[in-house]
Amino acid sequence: MEEIAEVYARALFEAAQDDDVLDRVHDELGEFADALDEDRNLQVFLFSPYFSSEEKKQGVRRIVTDADERILNFLELLAERHRMPALFRARRIFDGLWAEENKLLPVNVTSATELDQGLVDDIGKRIADQTGRQVELSSTVDPDVLGGLRVQVGNMVLDATVRNRLEQLRKQVAKAA
Predict the structure, then answer these.
(1) On the chain, which terminus has fewer CB atoms closer than 10 Å, C or N?
(2) pTM
(3) What is the pLDDT of residue 1?
(4) Which region, left, alpha or beta, applies to residue 151 given φ > 0 means left and ψ of -120 to 50 means alpha?
């Protein structure tokens, strides 16, 4: 299923990129996937083998209005070939390709208490300056970290939390005993 989703996502990405409608297609794909994820009846209709390809294509045409033609063709193709369940994986892959194209770097700052937004923005700005990429910044509160910060930049993590330091100390003491 992953390989199928990748083929479809790449094809949609390249078509949107060629016609310079990448952002619009990204937004519309996300909107449709979110709507499908929230509507059980729509899932039953589009995922069910009891409905014909033609019925599903007509349903897609009725559901999706004012969308880019590439999105409509993409969804009809998935419906026609009974590949609609691959939509969510295709969206995830498309989002990754879109983020890479736009040089987006996800950054998450975790702290024990709510941080001042200026501090969070400053952390994001410094990371953007060092990496040369546009930062997609989020912050979360997790009382379990006790204090300090955990900053996740892409798939790298800088853990300067009190909890992490206590765990390292515990391991050193256990080793020494």
Answers:
(1) C
(2) 0.67
(3) 63
(4) beta
